[in-house]
Design a protein that fits this description.
mainly beta; Pdz3 Domain; four-stranded antiparallel β-sheet; 1 helix; 4 strands; globular
Length: 56
């Protein structure tokens, strides 16, 4: 299973594009602990995707 690492650049979360106005804490308020989200990220010259379960 792929995991995020230091240096990864997050591109989107659940298809919501990350931009300069994105506030992660506000975005995550819509989810509950235990729900899964899809994260797209850039690493070593290519786009990747991982699903993560939110913890508390």
């Amino acid at each position: 299973m792929a995991k995020l690492k230091e240096g990864d650049i997050i591109l989107s979360i659940d298809d919501k594009k990350i931009d300069k106005d994105f506030i992660l804490a506000e975005f995550l308020e819509q989810y509950k602990i235990g729900e899964k989200i899809k994260i797209s990220y850039w690493r070593e010259g290519k786009e990747n995707e991982v699903e993560v379960e939110l913890g508390g």
